[in-house]
Amino acid sequence: MRTEQPKMIALSDYRLPDYLIDETHLTFELHESYALVHARLLMQRNPGLDESLPPLVLDGQQLELVDIELDGRQLSVVEYSLTDSHLQIQPAKHQFELSTTVRIEPQNNTALEGLYKSSGMFCTQCEAEGFRKITYYLDRPDVMSRFTTTIHAEKHRYPILLSNGNPIAEGEDENGRHWVTWEDPFKKPAYLFAVVAGDLWCVEDSFTTMSGRDVALRIYVEPENIDKCQHAMNSLKNSMRWDEEVYGREYDLDIFMIVAVNDFNMGAMENKGLNIFNSSCVLAKAETATDAAHQRVEGVVAHEYFHNWSGNRVTCRDWFQLSLKEGFTVFRDSEFSADMNSRVVKRIEDVAYLRTHQFAEDAGPMAHPVRPAQYMEISNFYTLTIYEKGAEVVRMLHTLLGAETFRKGSDLYFERHDGQAVTCDDFIAAMESVSGMDLTQFKRWYSQAGTPELQVSDSYDAATQTYQLTVKQSCPDTPGQTDKQPFVIPLSMALLSKQGTELPLQLQGESVATEGERVLSVTQAEQTFTFINVAEQPLPSLLRGFSAPVELRYDYSRDDLLFLLQHDTDGFNRWEAGQQLALQVIEEVVGQIYETDEPMLDMRLIEVFEALLAQEDLNPAMLAEFLALPSTGYIIEQYVQADPLAIHQAREYVSNQLAFALKEPMLARYQALRKVSLDTPYVAQASDFARRRLQNMLLAYLMRTQDLEIMDACIDQFGIADNMTERLAGLACLVNSPFSDEAEKALESFAERFENDPLVMDQWFSVQAAAGLPGGLERVQHLLNHPAFSIKNPNKVRALVGAFSTQNTANFHAADGSGYAFLADKVIKLDALNPQMAARMISPLTRWQRFDLHHQEQMLAQLKRIKNSGDLSADLFEVLEKSLAV
Ligand code: B3K
Ligand code: ZN
Known about the structure:
By secondary structure, this protein is α+β, with helices and mostly antiparallel strands. Helix 1 links the parallel strand 18 and strand 19. Helix 16 packs parallel to helix 18 and helix 24 (818-833) runs antiparallel to helix 25. The relative contact order is 0.07. It is globular and about 90 Å long. The strands form nine sheets. Strands 6-5-9-3-2-12-15-14 form an eight-stranded mixed beta sheet, with no helix packed on it. A five-stranded mixed beta sheet has the order 17-18-19-21-20, covered by helices on one side. It has a four-stranded mixed beta sheet with strand order 29-26-25-31, with no helix packed on it. (3S)-3,7-diaminoheptanoic acid is lined by residues 127-128, 266, 268-270, 303-304, 307, 326, 379, 382.
């Protein structure tokens, strides 16, 4: 809890650390009601600075200092000073040894940062600034140290004692206790430190690296989950191989461990050699985890593994550089997933996510650059902008340099900076060195917030056979930033003929034409590209593969979009044409809703969906993507002031019309797919993901017709499926249908069957929380009292409160403001327990400016109520300050 107003920390205030810590020797004594942490630090004055000996100021929070010694001599109370966040002493020598003992209470740590308990085991989360809740330290990423860690604990309760690196000694204590010592040969910042103690089982495997070293791989879980580790293990081995092949990166320790814990604020954490994971990102088997969950496990396992190089071997100098490791690592994991599954589907999923969520963040009060210039609470900056937009920035570099040069750049970066804590500028400098390019202007992507807009217009002159594309770029103002300078925007494009083939491309001044697509480099506020020898009036296919994180505006008619949807040679842009078409149709219906009770649907949407359904050779994954209408969240983002209820209603209307009009072909296709699913055992692979996704999407459409036979088919799929993907989709369809008795029965039997599996119960909560039928809020309120719910468990909070406020448009945005008041209540309650979660959960309310005046008022009222609710954490305080500052 905060006692004084949190301060802004600025990138421009960065100073080198006054002191360094060469060695860190930790001893943990773990008990049920307290833990003692002894730290022996071998320190020196930073040799890069002058000879003076300034005071040594160590970070430390919520610690009770029991003992402090300097070079073996106990300090008296006048020789150090303590505040609630720092310990200060005056060194007398350039090299010294500082020892402290502190007492902490992991069992009472509900913030899940530092050392805490989760389902009876001890575990840690230190990034970004959690280590200071374990011991007094220079808790900043540019202080890198060699760690040894000894853990003492009761042997019966905690047979497994883990930390980073390799185990080097172990033994028995008195009173049924035991100990293990771990040594990590690599220097690391404290945020990568980890400890685990528990009664865990492990699945073991091994991996032979490209230089022939054997690495032991271990996934530790609670005994009841031992049969849910194989998918994560396969993903880990695939990641290790991929990083060798694609980036030339080899693993560097003899052992790599993953531990699954139930209480975790985010997905996972890349601690050196000892990754700690939210169990939802490790455990997966057909019966209990959906395809989406399987893919998430694969992606997160890869992400954390890839951090071993992009993050651990080369780390961040300060937290302003967070995207240096996160943006790069997200780019790496998304390329990995693209290689393991379908590249175009992965791109579609990533872009849909980015445009719905990151664009919203970038347009709201929390907007910040990929490299922020200041923050109050760093935990608030683990954002979509740092991660997803950061990955897009790296992707643009990859596009501009080409795969081969980019690889040379990453090799140089890893080689130059191995063992160092560096900045985004260092990353760019490596890319400049290998490419000979000047990336000064490109770096504006790191310093300017907001989503750029690309306004494209064109003209064709048949007489001279020239075609001109005029591109104007601009970027909206964001908090604290106006008058943005032009970005470097790679604009991948092609020109399509009337037959849908790609026309040769020859820019004025070029002597020959090139085939296919090319990447135009847009660098000015306004720029015209003139193509010559263009034989016919072309249709441009722009921003192919979403080559830059921008809003593209080009005045396509609906017929143009229909043409692109059928003929564009770029799979991503085919999908995009369908999305823009559906968006236009839905927006039209939104307009009609205000004027008449009988909206009119543009029949061309139905016709094209029908044609797609009939296209036998169309990949089911792509068909599923085509049939998925733009999400409500994405549609809301297209408005200056959105009426969420009208948008929801319009989207429902369009979905229903499609369902009734296409019932027959949808049913035929559904039945065929369902038969394949029945006849084949579950496999977690792309082609099967695609089949089940299409099958379930068709079922959802079909259930809209309220046909009793279809309901029976749905109950059948729900009841006898051998996998969670089909079962849960069946359940969701029933819960969203008017067949309430059947829905209740299904919910009951599902809960009975899976009551002992917390991750499955999370799905059960989410399905209900997202259901848009009337009475949704009452249902969620009721579920808060369900024995499987706990407000202390982040997965549960996300499953119920999070799903309600992000997926249940009709009930969350209820006109009387009850949905907002509910979220505010939960945020206030959460803040006292877990500030990081509170600051995350509040985010739907921070988007108030996007909505119509009525909804704005209701949201603002709740934000103010939270603000006045009492003592707030720094996390929540910062979000509220920014949200209310406008
Ligand atoms: N690096 C961690 C983030 C932990 C942040 C906690 N506030 C997860 C990841 O991006 O891999
Ligand atoms: Zn990461």
